Amino acid sequence: MLNLQPNPIYYSSEHEQFRKTVREFVAREITPFINEWDEAETFPRALYRQSAEIGIIGIGYPEEYGGTPADGFYSIIVADELSRAGSGGLIASLLSHSIAAPPILAAGSAELKARVLPAILSGEKIAALAITEPSGGSDVASLKTTAIRDGQCYIVNGEKTFITSGLRADYFTVAVRTNPADKGAGGVSLLLVERDTPGFTRTPLKKMGWWCSDTAHLHFDNCRVSIANLIGEENQGFQTIMLNFNSERLGLAAQAYGLAKVCFEDALAWARERKTFGAPLVERQVIRHKLVDMAMKLEATRATLEDLTSRVENNIGAPNLLVAQTSMLKNFATQTMQFCADQALQILGGMGYIRESRVERIYREVKVLMIGGGAEEIMKDLAAKQMKL
Amino acid sequence: MKIIVCLKQVPKNDSILRINDAGSWIQDRDLTYEINESDAYALEAALQLKEKHGGEVIALSLGPARVQSVIKEALARGADRGLHLEDTAFDQLDAFGAAATIAAAAEGDGFDLLLTGLQSDDHGYAQTGVIAAELLGLPHATIVMDLQTEDGGIKVKRELEAGFFQWVTMPVPAVFTIQSGINTLRYATLKGIMAAKKKEIKKLDAAALGLDAATLAPKQQIKRVYFPQKSKQTQMIEGTAAAAAATLVEKLKNEARVF
């Protein structure tokens, strides 16, 4: 029987043990409550600390900051297993540090890293990444939020939008223009803005899906931010942001795969249980074909995801080609999710349209993964450019 | 306090079970395994005692190479080292043979407490811990729900029938079989999993344990394994409502014996 298992050549007994831990954690601490949390449009802050305790938050970070050095397959496992709760919104908020903290680790000063990373990795503080503005997202080089040097501070003015964990975060990794004379990539820096900074306000945003994830519009009105919070060199932020996008997109692809697999599993279980005209749905050719089409796309997505993760881990291939492959995988995985959510909902029929069904929620979460972290069209342009077509 | 915890690897409780070709046991192809439920609670009880009083927790498992995953999981949860009892001579052990093997390994290592789960989720004999205690000549208690140190000895709470409990105090070393659900199981954290890679797992075979074929020879044998026979009989009761109700009551009393 096809059971959509990971390819064992990539996973050690330690990987499998960690998968068991995360699976138990999700079954015990998340799944029983996820419907309630999604309806309430939030989840307990304590979940960050609980997740940190078992190792989810600190994967891949140095031990000196409270992390656990580990390869990329551990992150794939986390995305895969968290997906079992059937809420991409929970994953997005719970792991918002996974896009906010890497720039601090990669480019932040020793003082900054020691000051903020232990609190983030222990789940005590929440971190968010703020790049997108009302005027644009993927076109980072054109961002308009300014940070003008004034003595030992930067004065930040501008807006950011669609920011995950935007309301609850304690630390914001914010892309700003520190050189207004340079209207392109050369004037961009990254700055850590703390939540209680005077002049920094946040407004919640209602969404199609990802209900339990908080999403906000951020306003910076003459916020004074210490120069000690500059992440990396001034005007050198663009490259750090671009590198950060790659790991984000790989993570999004893993999440899309995990959620697509949930759709397949729920559709298969329903097709076996539901009888029409004297036979289970799964015995109808039209339903069997739908399930096979889903399984086929899932298997191809998993194989590509694991192959690319291995290539990234082992530096196999030219960097520009890895960027192209990551961009294509992000599109491929989210298209698989779109297809599986659609087919699963069709198989589940009325049950799939009822709230509290995992498929219903995942169906509403398809578009955010096809747009967030780089829209499909941007991904294609980037892949074409990196492959020098 | 030095505590040895016996961990049996059993098929996961959601496994699809099939009987093997010989009809002697379940088919082990396609099975996935986990720590026997009550053994996991025994491990947690041991870890909590160690946290309170210091000492060492040793995870012991008997079986083929695959049982190392059970030992590794225990090490990831906080056990200090592992003992893996592996030999083809151990393949067909009954409860007595398993107890004799465990007793030999435990005696060789030395301990203050030897813990097992109340019973295994596969065979369900509930004998291994008790027989091991008898072979070792040590005091023991079964269905233990709580363990407290007291005046150099140990005081345990046993579950009796009909909602009664019993507190028993005894000297150490001692052997206890632990009830499920008595504590909250901790997770094997990522840090714990990584740290476990550096912990020792010592392998011991029959020769190292001084066990001969006569000791290990099964004293009991499974003749046949089969699924319960399902039978469904429908009886139509006819007549007026009052007469049918009276017949139904009579049948429920005397045939089905439900009241």
Gist?
The complex is a heterodimer of chains A (389) and B (259). Chain A has helices spanning 13-30, 34-40, 46-54, 72-82, 88-94, 97-107, 110-121, 237-273, 285-313, 319-348, 350-353, 358-364, 366-371, 376-386; strands spanning 127-130, 146-150, 153-164, 171-177, 188-194, 200-204, 215-226, 230-231, 275-276, 279-280.
Spell out the CATH superfamily of the largest domain in chain A: Butyryl-CoA Dehydrogenase, subunit A, domain 3
Average of the residue pLDDT scores of chain B: 94
What is the makeup of the main sheet of chain A? 4 strands, mixed
Count of separate DSSP helical elements of chain B: 7
CATH superfamily of chain B: HUPs
As a percent range, the share of strand residues of chain B is 15-25%
Query: What is the global morphology of chain B?
Result: globular
> Any low-confidence stretches of chain A, pLDDT <50, length ≥5?
none
Strand order of the largest sheet of chain A: 1-4-5-8
Helix content of chain B: 25-40%
The quaternary structure here is heterodimer
What gross morphology of chain A would you assign?
A: globular
- By CATH, the architecture of chain B is named 3-Layer(aba) Sandwich
Number of domains of chain B: 1
CATH architecture of the largest domain in chain A: Up-down Bundle
Task: Write down the secondary-structure element order of chain B.
Answer: EEEHEHEHEHEEEEHEHH
What strand order characterises the main sheet of chain B?
9-8-7-10-6-1-4-5-11
Rg of chain B (CA only): 22 Å
